UniProtKB/TrEMBL annotation:
It comes from the Eukaryota. The lineage of its organism: Eukaryota, Fungi, Dikarya, Ascomycota, Pezizomycotina. This is Putative UPF0047 domain protein. Gene3D superfamilies: YjbQ-like. Coiled coil: none annotated. Belongs to the UPF0047 family.
Length: 121
């Protein structure tokens, strides 16, 4: 049984949902060496999260962002502050809430040197 651990960085992005599969695969060429296994990804930032979703329609990412904004808005309906923690800006605390709800890690199966995903084909 073999395993490896590797740290890599993704380019900073503004608030939103992004596809990172290609960046992950190119950053981890070692995946090709595994017939079967598990990839565990963990993000080391408290206002960022990882999730698995479909890529069939970009509306899915936009709808996810919209839904999360309704759950953890940056401000109240009249523009009022909602959170005590606002030293880093009004969007910081909502990002922490969204990250806590979604999570900081995902586990993806590896089969025949490739990530197994649930996207429709």
């Amino acid at each position: 049984m073999s395993w490896f651990q590797k740290q890599f960085a993704l380019s900073p992005q503004s608030r939103g949902s992004y596809l990172i599969t290609d960046q992950v695969v190119s950053s981890l060429p070692e995946i090709r060496d595994y017939k079967v296994g598990l990839l565990n990804l963990f993000v080391q930032h408290t206002s960022c999260a990882l999730s698995l979703n479909e890529n069939w329609d970009s509306d899915v990412r936009e709808d996810m962002s919209d839904a999360l904004d309704r759950i953890a808005p940056a401000e109240g309906p009249k523009g009022e502050a909602l959170y005590r923690h606002d030293a880093e800006g009004p969007d910081d605390m909502p990002a922490h809430i969204k990250s806590a709800l979604i999570g900081a890690s995902v586990t993806i199966p590896i089969k025949d040197g490739k990530l197994v995903n649930a996207n429709r084909t």
